[in-house]
UniProtKB/TrEMBL annotation:
Organism whose genome encodes this protein: Sphaerochaeta pleomorpha (strain ATCC BAA-1885 / DSM 22778 / Grapes)
UniProt-recorded name of the protein: Cytosine deaminase-like metal-dependent hydrolase
CDD domains: ATZ_TRZ_like
Coiled coil: none
Pfam family, one: Amidohydro_1
Entries under PANTHER family matching the protein: AMIDOHYDROLASE-RELATED DOMAIN-CONTAINING PROTEIN, AMINOHYDROLASE SSNA-RELATED
Annotated ranges, domain Amidohydrolase-related: 56-427
Length: 466
């Protein structure tokens, strides 16, 4: 019989449900992975107790776009994304990416997942397109090892690039695959890891990297495979590639994607700052989702998404960290705060902006919808017990506590949370990831970064000698 856990006496429980309910001074009863009751003075018999006195409880954040493999190329002022054109940045960063091996994939994924968990993210999608001669086909397998160790709910996007540089791609030949290689490995991974059952901990997404870096048949056959296997589709779109697509195919990228069927309720796209108002309508009508990644947009000086107009058309928008090389962290609470401030900046010209609570729902229930999940994203009976807690008792929280729904984005609560629970299990509490030797893993990760990247690219990585 599944074990029971009772979270007791929470100061507030922000549910993000359809009625935006907030429970005060209440309990959450969890059996196995599932919430079975929320209310006051619930029966403690046979329960493991978690004291939530003074804590605000929120649904776990859902990250809908990331590149975990990039966590070892952060904090590099020698390849400074804000001060370069995207094409120049790509030319400098890809020679590093092509040397990544299986150990880098494993440890960089651990680093990103740990950062996510410590900041309230319980379910993460990663767009893994870094397949080199050194990684072989093991990248997603290594990520599944990492997610299992830490206990995060993980959706793996199996990406690829198939078009050579000689035909207009930005990808080095060492990082190319054939369409057949890609599809064969998607099939393998779906068979091994894709679980479509309620409360599943792992799923696979067919996710060719971006239209300008693959042959059309890669995308066309991805659609056929995903629809046959009933898995979701993802790619980058609307992030500056439209002039190339118009020159190459005589149409904008979304029109090209619509023509081949790479739109729909089972599809979501990353970025979209290049989308126009007519394309908002197409996205809404086809029920194609969009992952908003605020950090790279700010770093790159790209247009701020017109989320109010997108929402008026009926688009589903979620939140992503994006790659560590264009974010420098895997902190989705920080992205939540940044996204809110970005929208507020344009509020007068756009007739308003999403509220801090609207942004929280974008980062929770909208993210779950984007990934096709109906079992997470809000705190209510029957949903998975994915949640995090914020301690309201420290002095710096005084004066903010009258509105728990808006607290996070509005006041900038972006540091490590008090506790994170995934699927009914505590995976992070009071500053510690549970069940692992974090110090040992950190030492191993640094050693891998030194061996594979710092020693190979001394001109890129500053000397650590003093």
């Amino acid at each position: 019989m599944p074990s029971k856990t009772l979270i007791t006496n929470a100061k507030a429980i922000v549910t993000c449900n359809e009625t935006d309910t907030v429970y005060y001074d209440s309990d959450i009863l969890i059996e196995g992975p599932c919430i079975i009751a929320i209310g006051k003075n619930l029966d403690t018999t046979g329960c493991t107790l978690i004291d939530a006195k003074g804590k605000y409880v929120y649904p776990g954040l859902v990250n809908t776009h990331h590149h975990f493999f990039q966590t070892f190329v952060r904090n590099l002022m020698t390849i400074d994304y804000p001060n370069m054109l995207v094409v120049d940045w790509l030319d400098k960063i890809y020679p590093i990416f092509q040397e990544i091996d299986s150990e880098v994939i494993y440890y960089s994924s651990l680093v990103a997942m740990a950062d996510l968990l410590k900041h309230g993210c319980t379910c993460a999608f990663d767009h893994q397109y870094c397949y080199t001669q050194k990684t072989g086909k093991s990248a997603v397998d290594r990520q599944m090892e990492a997610s299992s160790l830490l206990g995060i709910r993980y959706h793996a996007g199996r990406g690829c690039n198939t078009l050579p540089k000689s035909e207009g791609s930005t990808i080095p030949d060492k990082m190319l695959e054939t369409t057949k290689e890609f599809l064969d490995d998607c099939n393998r991974l779906i068979g091994l890891y894709h679980d479509s059952n309620p409360f599943s901990m792992s799923q696979i997404v067919v996710a060719p990297c971006q239209p300008i870096n693959s042959y059309p048949e890669t995308f066309i056959e991805s659609v056929a495979l995903a629809r046959d296997k009933k898995v979701r589709l993802h790619t980058h779109l609307g992030e500056g590639e439209n002039p190339i697509m118009e020159a190459r195919w005589g149409m904008r990228t979304l029109q090209w994607a619509q023509k081949i069927g790479f739109v729909g309720e089972d599809v979501w796209l990353a970025h979209g700052w290049e989308l126009n108002r007519e394309e908002y309508k197409v996205m809404a009508q086809t029920k194609t989702g969009l992952s908003h990644c605020p950090a790279p947009a700010v770093l790159g000086g790209f247009p701020i998404l017109d989320i109010p107009s997108m929402q008026r058309e009926g688009m589903n928008i979620s939140l992503g960290c994006d790659g560590s090389a264009t974010n420098d962290s895997s902190n989705l609470l920080d992205s939540l705060r940044m996204a809110y401030l970005m929208q507020a900046y344009n509020s007068k010209s756009r007739g308003g902006s999403p509220s801090p609570y609207d942004m929280l729902k974008i980062a929770t229930i909208n993210g779950a919808k984007t990934l096709g999940r109906t079992d997470i994203g809000s705190l209510q009976v029957g949903m998975g017990a994915d949640l995090f807690m914020v301690d309201t008792l420290p002095l710096e929280m005084a004066g903010t506590l009258h509105d728990p729904k808006t607290l996070l984005a509005r006041t900038g609560v972006t540091g490590p949370v008090y506790l994170t629970m995934v699927n009914g299990k505590v995976v992070y509490s009071e500053g510690h990831l549970t069940g692992i030797d974090e110090g040992k893993l950190a030492e191993e990760a640094e050693a891998v970064c030194n061996r594979v990247l710092r020693s190979e690219f001394p001109s890129v990585f500053p000397s650590m000698q003093h």
